[in-house]
Amino acid sequence: MSDQANIKVLIVDDHRMFAQGIAEALGGNEGIDVVGMARGVEEARFKSRVLTPDVVLMDYRLPDGDGASATEMIKADRPDAKVVMITSFTDESVLLAAIEAGCSGFIPKDNSIEEVVAAVRGANVGEALIPPAMLARLLPRLRRTTGGVGSNLSPREIEVLRMMAQGLPNQAIADSLVLSLKTVRNHVQNIIAKLQTHSKLEAVSTAVREGIVRYP
């Protein structure tokens, strides 16, 4: 997607009034187009294929499944799509399932529309949308394996990955390492590819699980 193109958003929520409210609020912001709404897992997968949204705002509890399953299906079809979970759930197993499915982050349902707009823009450029305190709580729970994933990461990529695990956005990483934002974004994309993941958040969880980095 070019820098000039609008961000296409798909909203997945079975509460029509909530979904319509989010759609109307987002639609009033420059550079964002709400291209559709879906009420369940299968409809979300179908509309993601047809409408090709850049960002999917996903409720967790859906009539025919859950947001983690829907995220996994959407990412299997369209790996570049960014999925952000809008949820009132704080259960760690729910949040971990969403991360492992490739979710880019979370937005509490009581957030302001300004925060939702910021989350859409952040997800679109690959940021991980999760409070550092929540990340600190979740990552130690990841079960480590010995899959050998990430053995081809460069020292600089591991350095960037450590900062990602601290919850730092790309601009803060760039400032700390005295690099351009574009260079950091390239490193992040390389990390995501080498770890065989679909998002910045999933890359961090995989790196911790595999023991590539230790969560501070």
The SSE string, one letter per element, is: EHEHEEEHEHEHHHHHH
CATH third-tier fold name of the largest domain: Rossmann fold
Radius of gyration: 17 Å
Distance N to C terminus: 35 Å
Number of helices: 10
Shape: globular
Strand order in the sheet with the most strands = 2-1-3-6-7
Q: What is the strand tally? A: 7
Q: CATH homologous superfamily name of the largest domain?
A: Response regulator
Oligomer: single chain
Helix content: 40-55%
What is the structural class? alpha/beta
Overall number of domains: 2
Proportion of beta-strand residues: 5-15%
Largest sheet, strands/sense/barrel: 5 strands, parallel
CATH C-level category of the largest domain: Alpha Beta
Overall mean pLDDT score?
A: 88
Which properties best describe this structure?
single chain; 216 residues; alpha/beta; Rossmann fold; Arc Repressor Mutant, subunit A; 2 domains; 5-stranded parallel sheet; two-stranded antiparallel ribbon; 7 strands; globular
What would a concise description of this structure say?
The chain has helices spanning about 15-25, 40-50, 65-75, 90-100, 115-125, 130-140, 155-165, 170-175, 180-195, 200-210, and strands spanning about 5-10, 30-40, 55-60, 60, 65, 80-85, 105-110.
